[in-house]
Amino acid sequence: xxxxxxxxxxxxxSHKKISxxxxxxxxxxxxxxxxxxxxxxxGDSLATVVQGKPNTLPVTLEEMIYHGEMVxxxxxxxLVIIDLPFPxxxxxxxxxxxxxxxxxxxxxxxxxxxxxxxxxxxxxxxxVEAGIPCMAHLGLRPQMIQVLGKYSLQKERDLxxxxxxxxxxxxxxSVLLECVKSEIAQEISETLQVPVIGIGSGKxxxxxxxxxxxxxxxxxxxxxxxxxxxxxxxxILNACISYREDVxxxxxxx
Length: 254
Ligand code: KIV
Fold this sequence. Notes:
254 residues; alpha/beta; eight-stranded parallel beta barrel; 8 strands; 42% helix; binds 3-methyl-2-oxobutanoic acid
């Protein structure tokens, strides 16, 4: 079990790939932790997979804290990272440090994750100086969806490498690469000293993260980069139908 930032960063050299999953509530976080997953991300994907919103923009800091606190309570022996929701990092470093500190104080999590705007790595230094570990989210940044128009593979090698090195220099304990061309993600993983966690970025990163609801078959669709291990939607549906039939047929439930 990993439950400190130095333990997590040391996994880079452990010759074992790092596993990470999202979780948003007490029962699922407990299961994810019991499965020996190295770190839990309370992602702002909360907006889409739990709240049913069209993208990650609507989720609030208060909602991230509400869910993050449950996850931390359920998984006291697992490293928990909480996403900073839109528009984190765009309203000045003081707001960023204040909001991130509030997340740490109110949830008991270990670190925050920041979608890093190009050239904004000094924000990471501000967090680290304040004692707030930060994972830098690079590559596809879903909080930019209204500008981007669509979610697509990121292929700008020089810019991505430069951004990853800058994030590491600024003190990020880890870099997350979303939807980055596999060869570029591999080069970044081999270049950086901190762990590089990929999603939709090929198999050569130091670790992988996926959205729990995608692997469980609960998000209504399986993104190209995810693997569905079970179809919980079908199992839950069948259980609910069986229960309804029992009630309608007068079969008493003990
Ligand atoms: O919000 C999220 O779930 C993420 C993904 C990269 C896992 O940031």
